[in-house]
From TrEMBL:
Residues 4-138 form the N-acetyltransferase domain. One of its GO terms (cellular component) is cytoplasm. PROSITE patterns: GNAT. It comes from Cryobacterium algoritolerans. SUPFAM superfamilies: Acyl-CoA N-acyltransferases (Nat). Its EC number is 2.3.1.1. This is Amino-acid N-acetyltransferase. One of its GO terms (molecular function) is L-glutamate N-acetyltransferase activity. One of its GO terms (biological process) is L-arginine biosynthetic process.
Length: 168
């Protein structure tokens, strides 16, 4: 019997998502975000609840371009690590990405082994077509700046690995 389920996040989940990611923000694994940012992006989030309704994981898929999305704020409670919760979230986010017509997923992470197991690889100096770059560089979104490896986000990305996955 499955001990948890993945579903679309609701606005009422935002405080629980914030509580879930707070320890990872304190450890500087995830960047902190204001409440308004979570509410603005709630439709991008999927959450995992156990059979008691406790939130045990979350993750978001943010569309960056016609073929490109970013996996954001992927988090699992410490007591559920290694029990398939993160993998269930990734499966759901990849399904969502395919439904949207995306062919590539990006992430900025310290969790290289986890994302490698899901087919992501270090994107190194990979970039996008110059015309797409010219459009993306206009974005105010920090995730887009991280994808483009812009100098203004370097202090926030130290030690992280920029990874990409091609969806088939």
């Amino acid at each position: 019997m499955q001990e948890y389920s993945v579903r679309r996040a609701r606005t009422s989940d935002v405080p629980r998502i914030q509580a879930l990611v707070a320890p990872l923000v304190q450890e500087r694994i995830l960047l902190g975000k204001e409440s308004v940012v979570f509410y603005e992006a709630v439709q991008e989030f999927r959450v995992v609840e156990d059979t008691d309704g406790t939130l045990i994981g979350c993750g978001a898929l943010h569309v960056m371009w016609e073929d490109l999305g970013e996996v954001r704020t992927l988090a699992v409670t410490a007591d559920r690590l290694g029990r398939g919760v993160g993998h269930a979230l990734m499966d759901r986010l990849e399904t969502d990405a395919r439904e949207l017509g995306l062919t590539r997923l990006f992430c900025l992470t310290f969790e290289v082994p986890f994302f490698s197991r899901h087919g992501f690889s270090d994107m190194g100096s990979e970039t996008v077509d110059p015309l797409v770059y010219a459009e993306l560089v206009r974005s105010h979104d920090e995730g887009v700046a991280e994808f483009l490896d812009l100098a203004r986000v370097k202090p926030n990305t130290l030690g992280n690995t920029r990874m990409v996955k091609r969806l088939v």
